Amino acid sequence: MIAPKKISITINGQVCEGEQGQTILDIARANNIYIPTLCFLKGLTPWGGCRLCVVEIEGSPKVAPSCATPAVDGTKITTHSDRLVAMRKATLELLFSERNHICPMCQYNKGDCGLQHQGMIHGITGIRYPYLYPAMPIDLTAKYFGLDQNRCILCTRCIRACDEIEGVHTLDVGFRGSKNQIVVDMNTTFGKSETCTSCGACVVSCPTGSLFDKATAFRGQWTSCKQVFTTCTECPVGCGLMVHTKENRIVNVWGDPDSSVNKGHLCVKGRYETWAEPRDRITTPLVKGKPATWAEALAAVKKGAKVKKAEKALLLAPRVTNEVAAAAAKLGQVAMFVGANEAALCAEPKFSDSAMQKLQDADAIIVLGAQPSLDNGVVAARIRIAVRKTGAKLLIFHARKSDLDQYADVAANVVSLESKLWDKVKATLANTQRPAIVYGPNAMTPIGVTVMERLIGILETNAGSGEPLLLGLPRSRIVTGIPAVEEVGPWLDAKPLKFLHIVASDAPDGGASLLEEKHVPALLEQIECVVVQASYKSALTEKASVVLPATIWCEKSGTVTNLEGRQLPLRPVLPVAGEARDDKAILENVYA
Fold this sequence. Notes:
Elements: E1 6-11, E2 14-19, H1 24-30, E3 54-57, E4 63-65, E5 76-78, H2 82-98, H3 114-121, E6 138-139, E7 145-148, H4 157-166, E8 171-174, E9 181-184, H5 201-205, E10 211-213, E11 226-231, E12 240-246, E13 249-255, H6 268-273, E14 286-287, E15 290-291, H7 294-304, E16 312-316, H8 322-334, E17 337-340, H9 355-361, E18 364-368, H10 372-375, H11 377-390, E19 393-397, E20 410-412, H12 419-429, E21 435-439, H13 446-461, E22 469-472, H14 488-493, E23 499-505, H15 520-525, E24 529-534, H16 539-543, E25 546-549, E26 558-561, E27 567-570, H17 583-591
Helix pairs in contact: 4-11, 8-17, 9-11
């Protein structure tokens, strides 16, 4: 790979080094030279529409948008002059006059608004132009966020984020002239949208209060909040979180822009469901459905556990930390049967370093037995970007229908062995050099294994095709070192159990999904003592002899392993609620 050519430009009399291909704004920021911006956002394609970042280039009578103008070796740039300041002030005044920017009534009136911030920097206390006072619509039909067109400055950051980060292009600009506004799916509402994934990338990118989170409205200035960096535990991707808290409550959850896993992007689970979704919390131990002290609860558990090793078992949900899994594994060696309720692909995962980046760089992506759009939203976003922006081929096998089907070259949700299908597969995969296979739990079925073998065979015969990226994608988190329990019913039925301890941890459903499996409710009724360790109330906790309250994601510390094999940190964001305890501490208290 040829290294970029080095260039040198002069900005405000300061000699600045850069590389060919960088914009004037890139080099200015790298050298700590401030240029105001509104429509620019790092990571998105520059647009140059707001004209706030204009600069003067020696020898040119025109000003140029620094965010979209490539730097040329030897040029001299001026970022601040009387002419530029006057132009920027005029631009800001026009923006304030065009829509209804009534700051006292806006939740961003806390120093969070990019437009208000620029107005303060440029000393604007009033404007010379008449206010237009248009009657713009407000869309509050989305579950987690709203869109107020009155505060929109048409910077298009939301449109570019939706298109270039989430990959769905739900948003665009509609109508003409002064009636321009952001439209959803060719002018419908978020509530009726067929493409919006509720990832919130548009909200994070908005520099005004036009797009806003409902749950965080008027909760306080983000810059005055405490920020804690932790890891999302909703799925095995392990996205970095930047959590804003104030007065012992979560104000907002954003993606960590410095995370090498998700680069600041989140799906709806990590962005909203972790905190903006109301859940019925368990904060005190329960014995036979009634509140109890920890001493009483532990005594009841220890009494129920006084049976033979062959008559007791521990079942873990795949949401526990590595430290909890290690403690449970030790119990399995000396005290009881231990298993993790997840598909077999989680037991011995095949880790691939930098898998998320390799996935986006792939020229052919095969989805086999997985549901990334439903279970792993950030992975689905990477797939969309690879297909829509770089022309990667997409093939889907043995998976439920989803939004990814519309981008697929081959979508065999129900796989057949007809030669016509496989001839098309061979033609689609011809000449691929960077293939990736994303496989999920259904890839472990006889049909899935057959398809995997055929795909590997086709890729091996392709001239120039590299070794495919194999990315195992379980529905939930990865728990290593513990035997996987694919079906709980047969696992329970094979043991003469009198005592069962279920560690549901902070599963959103409180472990209730276990009751959906055939024969499980009946088998649980036959067990003398069922202990459920969970954070949220559910049908399962109602059936338990003893309920032990566990901490949730924002109260935990420890590490988790993601699908790339990275050991990622969990840091406590809030104090522990009520009498809840850490999962590891509970196990140690019970079985010490």
